[in-house]
Every structure is written in structure tokens, then in C-alpha cells.
Amino acid sequence: MTYRVPQFQEYTISLQKYANVSNADVLRSKLMELPFAFIDARTVISVEQISSAIYKALVESTYNRMRTKTLHSECILSLSPSSNIGDALKRFGIKEDSTNLIVIKIVKNGDDEPFDGKTSIVGDLVPVSDEQFVTTADIETIKNVCIQTKR
């Protein structure tokens, strides 16, 4: 899925979901080299949740209030109820045992090519939809994120 946010027409957002990923450990070791946000799909229950995180990251970037180095890591931080980037990456980012991934690439028009779906991810590309997210969301994991943040 590729789209633009009406308020941020200068950016192209590519959103992909992969199932049966078998090389999450390799991808995790190359995080700094790859221009993507890799999110463990167990922590996401809807397209709206991801879209809100992307929107918030774009707002933070526009007003020079980003707390991370890239828009991609800002998306992961925007998913988190806390403002600790390390905590957000640990809870929402790719893990070595991740088998379902959400991949985000945000490109400023003219700076880079939009995501064409071809990466070094070994897995099955599946539709981006609420129905698909619900099948891989882990409600207990999501509850634990909320409970741990309240402490």
C-alpha cells in the first residue's frame, strides 16, 4: 500500500505487511543499514494505529520536534505510550523471533525511491487491512505494554 497524507503531500508512505518471516534475526542485525521501520505485527491491531503513528511522526518532523534520528524510528516511538525510544524499540520493534512484520518506508518526494516491496525480507506479502492485523495481534502483549507504561 502506497499513499500520501493530505497535509504532507511532499512525502510518500509505503506500508507493507509480511507473514511467515523467517529471517527476522538477520533483518534485526541490519537495522541501521535499511531505510525502513520494522514493527512486530503482534503489537498492532489496526491500520488506524499505524496511520496515527506515521502522522504523528510527520508532524514532529515538520515542526523540528523529532526525538529520534529518523522518521522511521519516530514512527516506532509514536506507537508507544511512553516517550522512551529504547523502550519503544524493545516493545514495538522487530524481534529475533518475529514472524509477522509491518514495514514502513517514508520518502520525501525526490529524495529516494518509494518502497517497491523488494527487500531482503524472506516471507509472504499479505494485504494491509484491519482484518489482517487482527489475525496477528497479540492482545496480551498489547495489554502488557499499556500496563507496564502506567507503572
Automatic annotation (TrEMBL):
The gene is CGI121. PANTHER family: CGI-121 FAMILY MEMBER (PTHR15840), EKC_KEOPS COMPLEX SUBUNIT TPRKB (PTHR15840:SF10). It comes from Kluyveromyces marxianus. The keyword Disulfide bond does not apply. Component of the EKC/KEOPS complex that is required for the formation of a threonylcarbamoyl group on adenosine at position 37 (t(6)A37) in tRNAs that read codons beginning with adenine. The complex is probably involved in the transfer of the threonylcarbamoyl moiety of threonylcarbamoyl-AMP (TC-AMP) to the N6 group of A37. CGI121 acts as an allosteric effector that regulates the t(6)A activity of the complex. The EKC/KEOPS complex also promotes both telomere uncapping and telomere elongation. The complex is required for efficient recruitment of transcriptional coactivators. Its main location: nucleus. Belongs to the CGI121/TPRKB family. This is EKC/KEOPS complex subunit CGI121. Keywords: Nucleus, tRNA processing. InterPro entries: CGI121/TPRKB, CGI121/TPRKB_sf.
